[in-house]
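Recall that a protein's primary structure is simply its ordered list of amino acids. Everything else, from secondary elements to tertiary packing, is in principle encoded there. The following example makes that idea concrete.
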Amino acid sequence: GMTRAVNPSKLTRRSSVKGTQAFMPPEALDVPPRYNEKLDVFSFGNCITTTLTHEWPNPSHPTAYDKGRAILRTEFERRRRQIDLLSAREEELFLSLIKRCLEGDATIRPSSAEIVSEVKQIESTLQSTEPSATSQVQQAMSQLQQQFDEERQQHRTQLAKLKRDVSRLQNEIVTATSEKEALQTHIQLHEDKGSTQPSNIKMYRFNTKCIRTISDGEKRKCYVIAVNENGFLAVADQLNNCICLFDSNGTLSTVFQVKENEKMETFYTGIEFTRRNNIAIADCCSKRILIYTIKGEHIRTIVAKSKTYGVAVNKRGIYFCEAKRKCVSVYSEEGEFQFEFGTAGSGGHGQFRRPVSVAFGPDGLLYVVDASDCTIQVFTELGTFVRQFKVEIGQPDEICISNNGHVLISFPYSNEIGIFSVDGQLLHKIAFQSTPESVRLNEKGEIMLPDGENSILVYRVYWNF
């Protein structure tokens, strides 16, 4: 800069002008030029604008004309095009200093000491309000880490979903394999056309005897029942609109009201323990499946499209009949619809006239009672038809399957329970004075059925070889 000139008074000729003209103040272009340290101050103002805008100084003409009248522009105004490129933040910090440095009168320009002080003040302001390079790097690293964590979580979620899909496919393969084996077994059992009884089912003569009754002594109307693997008994009391739970010794342990809707009429057509040991109740009138804990806490309600009949449960979920829609519907225990199967018609093979009850056998096959067609149809858990048989002794209602494959069916119009082989051959009948609306087997293989009033009758089966 000119402040370093040892003897600036000797620089008096045009050929001796030093510096870049676009950065020079007006006094440097006078004849003779006038030099002092304020020349560098003017150049510094230009350097600030060039650094901030990345534009080379290109001052406009010093004279402007307005309606034929000449107006002299200041050095600052001559650089207005470049000044206008500054951002609002840059103007806030530097505009005052630039304007003072670009004064045409050298005596008004700030001294070097004043500039140093003001630049330090600007630097202090930036440090307190603007993030440092280190903090910017740290912020960028933090953002990258956050992005990485989010992507890693997404990948973990996708991996978990893939594992669930693989597990589901493996289960479906196992199910399909078991279904294939069941179908092959069924075909082999019926290859001998001269035989009406499967070769692996032995014919027995039955004797039954009522060994005890279960009751708490209260006036009730015991309608449908369920028994879990631990021998606990759930009874739907139609009279008092409640569920009674008895332990394996026949002692009443819990009674809870079904309060899903107190104003709505109820009629229980099925009850079953779920795999989580909750209780699923089919309420025909409200077209619902109600799910309660064994302590009587309402968990959720599954709303069907028509009246609900019967309940059966396996690992896929809750199965129940919709008689009006002529189908069997399947929901998860969480209340999500899975699928349905069955169409209207007679003759079986997946066609129903009035399906009213469902039960799973020990082989995993689902038995469906068609009351109007007097037919028992057998399906895989996915709804694939396997076989069917007619019952000739009356209109069937409730059904359950023993561990050795015998089929127990209630016939309320004739006050009987029928015991059948898996292909429909009648093996034994039990007659009752009251109407057996429901039938179940406990963990000992004893037959349990409500008497329609206050008690549950327990029958022991005696096998005569």
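Residues 341 and 383 are 6 Å apart (CA to CA). The mean pLDDT is 84.
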